[in-house]
Amino acid sequence: MTKTSLSLRCLIFFVALIVSLAACSETPANPEGEGNTKLTKSYSADVVVKWLGVQTSMLYTPSGNPFGFNPSRYMAYCGVALYESVLPGMPSYRTMHGQLTDMPVMPVAEPGASYHWPIVANAVLADMTRFMFGTTSAYNADAVNNLEDELNSQYRIGLDDATFNRSVAFGKTVAALIFEWSKGDSANWPASVEKPTGAGIWVSENGAAPVNPFWGFNRLMVQGSLDNTVSPPLPYSTDPNSEYYANMMEVYQVSQNLTHEQKRIAKYYNDSNPGYPAGAHYISMLKQLLEQLNPSLEKAALTYAKTGITLCDASAGSFRVKYEHWKERPFSYIREVIMPDAETEWKSYLPTPGFPDFPSNHAVFSTSVAYALSTIYGNKVSFKDASYEGVMADLGNGSENLGTRHFDSFDEMAMEISISRLYGGIHYRYSCAEGMIQGRKIAQNIDQKIKFTK
């Protein structure tokens, strides 16, 4: 056992002892803000934005396999840790313990003692970044250490040592407990998955093994979040009058007449080489949204937690369905059924991902996140996504800037992200449309099953 793991185990044991003695009280420290403790909503979300900046810099992938990790886990566990760490300064809100699957009891703030919630948030996000990103190739220890020290120096000006130390310890205690909890989410992964055979079954375009076949078996953050969320896939057919044939034909026809704007949209959400792969784009968007809307630390913590929880279960739900049905991608049907005698083999505008088609991940993810955000801010919110501002791509007329996407609502964002996969030639319309329905239902289930406010 390493020195680090031993220290972490000792900390968790100590915390568990404290928690067991303190019981499960949800009473905040100084609930009316008396003494030296202000409420969480008294502070800005600056600490959260800065930590999201460090995390997105490590999530941005310049090259290589973009599907070797699951950023929705990072978003969920970091968001829950942040929320629980500043919860004692949020008297109208309740803990996620007892609501999220297997989540441990959280420590209770010392009654009457003073806490500085940005310092607590800094401590919890610093350690969660170390825990969640520490084993990745992109982990930057200097960036983490430097930001933690910088913010501590900024926030502790005029603050007594006891409040500072108490705040740091509280944040790090929450981080240790949440990270230990996160280790159990892959406990139910099977040893292997069996691929079916037959007409309409997915095949890899390059002969590689399927990517991420076990994500759908991750422990759900919210039990029942996937209940009654999935539509059946379209039945396979080679009949030109069938809905299946019509969906595949549309992909082919769109590919032959892509507009410049459709190409830009497809490229913008490709999220690969370079990009924010496998759902990491939503962490970049979260950072930008907090910058643009400038919420309080309380509202930022709620936003981080709720969108992370929702995206995490949506990710599991989408992959679970993909590997339940193993539906083929458009390239195989178009080559074999629509144009089997073509002199030139048809290729999609975007590279086809290495896993089955139905449903579209982009549709499920974007719609689930959009719904979660709308429950906090309302749907009609104008914002922009500049994740790829300055990134150059050839859209047919030479290299040009992918620029910034502008939206007047969260639904508009979800619609654009979903349809981008049809433009890219890697999903047919039914997968996108039904994926949006699945994502919205997952988010609605979560909204009904967990309660943040008292």
Task: Describe the protein's architecture and organization.
By secondary structure, this protein is an all-alpha fold. Helices cover 51% and strands 3% of the residues. Helix 4 (117-133) runs antiparallel to helix 5 (141-155) and helix 12 (361-377) runs parallel beside helix 14 (429-449). It is elongated. The chain has a two-stranded antiparallel ribbon with strand order 1-4. Strands 2-3 form a two-stranded antiparallel sheet.
Summarize the structure.
The protein is mostly helical. The chain is built from 14 helices and four strands. The longest helix has 29 residues, at 297-325.
Mean pLDDT: 92
Share of helix, binned: 40-55%
Instruction: Output the structural class.
Output: mainly alpha
Number of strands: 4
Tell me the series of helices and strands, N- to C-terminal.
HHHHHHHHHHHHEEEEHH
Proportion of residues in extended strands: under 5%
Largest sheet: 2 strands, antiparallel
Question: Numbering strands along the chain, what is their spatial order in the largest sheet?
Answer: 1-4
Task: Name a few traits of the molecule.
454 residues, mainly alpha, two-stranded antiparallel sheet, 51% helix, elongated
Layout of secondary structure:
Blueprint (H helix, E strand, L loop, with lengths): L2 H20 L23 H14 L11 H16 L30 H17 L7 H15 L5 H22 L60 H14 L3 H9 L12 H13 L3 H29 L4 H9 L22 H17 L5 E3 L6 E3 L4 E3 L3 E3 L2 H14 L5 H21 L5
Antiparallel strand pairs: 1-4, 2-3
